[in-house]
């Protein structure tokens, strides 16, 4: 096997999917200064085996490996680090990222690693590497980073490769931080939102655009907080509009002044995606978790975006917040459905390390899964069985509603009582298959059809016309009529599996 090029420092993480890029690693690399020549970025995905990741990393004989640790990859990172330390205990492991930044609340991988850099680590990680490589290892394991002025940071955008630009999401940020204090969010720990110098930022965007970047995902928590900057950025991209340009922004739902609306309206069909965190319309819950949201204005803005623009609207709700009930959530859901966003993400509350929401854990009996992603299991007001029903509801909603495959059938499913009707469908689907995964598209269409035609309020002829048109739109080859009466094949007990049969032949 060809020996990989040796590097003293490897910056690495495990992304959720290949199309994602590790923005934080590129910031660390950009700010390594003279150590850059001794460093390399290596990205993996959580679908890869930890032992294969460990092998590839150690082939380069690094002295230091820095891992970005997040809620979605902490288990895989932990296994990888444990393997590395078994094989090469002298390799220094440095951890960073939100999942390890809030001691003493820490995952087990912290105990295995050599150092943990907490907070924004662009400068402190570089300094730690200098000390380690010079033989002056710090005696303190946990290193708290001080937040630096943004103008002191080297920007990371030149370190997106041509392959990144061609095949992956390009993450960018025009600002850092958030002024709001929503207790379920790590951004509530920020003092305020700080913008990067606008001219400098747009120069970087122009360079990326000229290199061929067309898929920009802004990670600003509040893109439309400073309206003048939002307008300037949108107008920058308007001047460069092309058929393949795609922009994603997370926006404050109740802050769309007329001058910002005027610019948004100029964008063509689905070139903009707005992620809008509604989370709940319940004012009592909003007050309890320190969330400031003008619900009336939020509804007006969502309605306007759907009716007056070509933007794609992705809206979020969270189930399981303190004092939340199934009825409360149902009311928020029904209100949001009525506003017709293209996609509704139903999030189940997760325990994030360090967030203020954890102060409610005992009073509201918030009990979380001890394993990542630390989803809520029950609360004072929601039992475990109900939580599981909503988990399944969320999964089936993705498959049926968010997929866009049931455009004509969905109104028949929801029929004036969205939450109640879809919960009825969700319960029926689970009773039929006992799972929310590995359901083929053909089978899903049949299951939805069978569930709906059993309802007394659904005209079967209208249902058949709607679901058959959706089925044809999906691109499936087999005729829908041929699927309806098929029964599942029963596997004979004791029958040899395919590999056994082949060997025995």
Secondary structure topology:
Blueprint: E1 9-15, H1 23-30, E2 39-45, H2 50-59, E3 64-68, H3 74-87, E4 92-96, H4 109-112, E5 115-118, H5 122-133, E6 142-144, H6 162-167, E7 170-172, E8 175-177, E9 193-195, H7 198-210, E10 215-218, H8 227-238, E11 246-251, H9 258-264, E12 272-279, H10 283-288, H11 295-308, E13 312-319, H12 326-338, E14 343-348, E15 367-368, E16 376-378, H13 384-402, H14 410-414, H15 418-433, H16 441-453, H17 460-473, H18 480-484, H19 498-504
Parallel strand pairs: 1-2, 1-3, 3-4, 4-5, 5-6, 7-10, 10-11, 11-12, 12-13, 13-14
Antiparallel strand pairs: 8-9, 15-16
Helix pairs in contact: 1-5, 2-3, 8-9, 13-15, 15-16, 16-17
Q: Would you kindly provide a brief summary of this structure?
A:
The chain has 505 residues and is of the alpha/beta class. It has helices spanning 23-30, 50-59, 74-87, 109-112, 122-133, 162-167, 198-210, 227-238, 258-264, 283-288, 295-308, 326-338, 384-402, 410-414, 418-433, 441-453, 460-473, 480-484, 498-504; strands at residues 9-15, 39-45, 64-68, 92-96, 115-118, 142-144, 170-172, 175-177, 193-195, 215-218, 246-251, 272-279, 312-319, 343-348, 367-368, 376-378.
Task: Give the CATH class of the largest domain.
Answer: Alpha Beta
Determine the oligomeric state from the structure.
single chain
Provide the helix percentage.
25-40%
Task: Give the domain tally.
Answer: 3
Strand order within the widest beta sheet: 2-1-3-4-5-6
How would you describe what is shown here?
Helix content is 39%, strand content 15%. It contains 19 helices and 16 strands. The chain has helices spanning 23-30, 50-59, 74-87, 109-112, 122-133, 162-167, 198-210, 227-238, 258-264, 283-288, 295-308, 326-338, 384-402, 410-414, 418-433, 441-453, 460-473, 480-484, 498-504, and strands spanning 9-15, 39-45, 64-68, 92-96, 115-118, 142-144, 170-172, 175-177, 193-195, 215-218, 246-251, 272-279, 312-319, 343-348, 367-368, 376-378. The strands form four sheets. The chain has a six-stranded parallel β-sheet with strand order 2-1-3-4-5-6, sandwiched between helices. Strands 7-10-11-12-13-14 form a six-stranded parallel β-sheet. Helix 8 runs parallel beside helix 9 (258-264). The model is unreliable at 487-495 (pLDDT under 50).
């Amino acid at each position: 096997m060809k020996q990989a090029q040796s590097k003293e420092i490897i910056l690495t993480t495990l992304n959720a999917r290949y199309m994602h890029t590790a923005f934080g690693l590129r910031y660390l690399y950009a700010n390594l200064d003279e150590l850059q020549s001794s460093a390399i970025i290596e990205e993996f995905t959580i679908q890869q085996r930890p032992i294969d990741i460990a092998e590839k990393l150690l082939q380069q004989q690094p002295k230091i490996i820095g891992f970005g640790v997040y809620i979605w990859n902490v288990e895989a990172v932990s296994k990888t680090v444990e393997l590395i330390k078994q094989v090469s205990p002298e390799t220094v492991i440095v951890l960073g990222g939100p999942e390890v930044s809030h001691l003493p609340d820490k995952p087990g991988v912290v105990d295995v690693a050599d150092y943990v850099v907490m907070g924004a680590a662009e400068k402190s990680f570089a300094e730690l590497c200098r000390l380690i490589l010079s033989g002056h290892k710090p005696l303190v394991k946990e290193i708290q980073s001080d937040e630096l002025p943004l103008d002191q940071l080297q920007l990371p955008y030149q370190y997106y490769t041509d392959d990144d630009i061609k095949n992956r999401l390009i993450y960018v940020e025009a600002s850092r931080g958030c002024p709001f204090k929503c207790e379920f969010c790590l951004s509530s720990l920020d003092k305020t939102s700080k913008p990067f110098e606008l001219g400098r930022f747009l120069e970087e965007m122009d360079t990326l655009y000229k290199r061929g970047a067309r898929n920009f995902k802004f990670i600003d928590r509040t893109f439309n907080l400073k309206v003048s900057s939002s307008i300037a950025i949108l107008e920058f991209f308007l001047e460069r509009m092309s058929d393949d340009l795609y922009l994603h922004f997370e926006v404050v739902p109740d802050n769309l002044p007329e001058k910002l609306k005027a610019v948004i309206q100029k964008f063509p069909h689905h070139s903009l995606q707005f992620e809008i965190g509604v989370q709940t319309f319940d004012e009592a819950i909003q007050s309890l978790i320190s969330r400031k949201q003008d619900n009336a204005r939020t509804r007006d803005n969502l309605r306007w975006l759907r009716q007056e623009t070509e933007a794609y609207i992705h809206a979020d709700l969270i189930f399981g917040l303190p004092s939340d009930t199934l009825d409360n959530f149902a009311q928020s859901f029904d209100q949001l459905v009525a506003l017709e966003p293209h996609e509704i993400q139903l999030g189940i509350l997760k325990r994030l390390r360090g967030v203020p929401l954890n102060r409610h854990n005992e009073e509201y009996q918030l009990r979380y899964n001890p394993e990542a992603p630390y989803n809520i299991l029950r609360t004072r007001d929601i039992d475990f069985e109900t939580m599981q029903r909503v988990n399944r509801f969320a999964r089936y909603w993705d498959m049926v509603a968010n997929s866009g495959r049931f455009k004509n059938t969905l109104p028949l499913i929801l029929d004036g009582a969205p939450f109640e009707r879809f919960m009825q469908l969700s319960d029926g689907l689970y009773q039929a298959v006992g799972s929310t995964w590995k359901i083929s598209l053909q089978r899903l269409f049949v299951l939805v059809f069978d569930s709906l035609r059993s309802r007394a309020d659904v005209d079967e002829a209208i249902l058949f016309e709607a679901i058959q048109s959706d089925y044809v739109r999906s691109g499936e080859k087999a005729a829908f009529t041929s699927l309806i009466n098929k029964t599942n094949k029963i596997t004979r007990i004791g029958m040899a599996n395919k590999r056994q049969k082949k060997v025995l032949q």
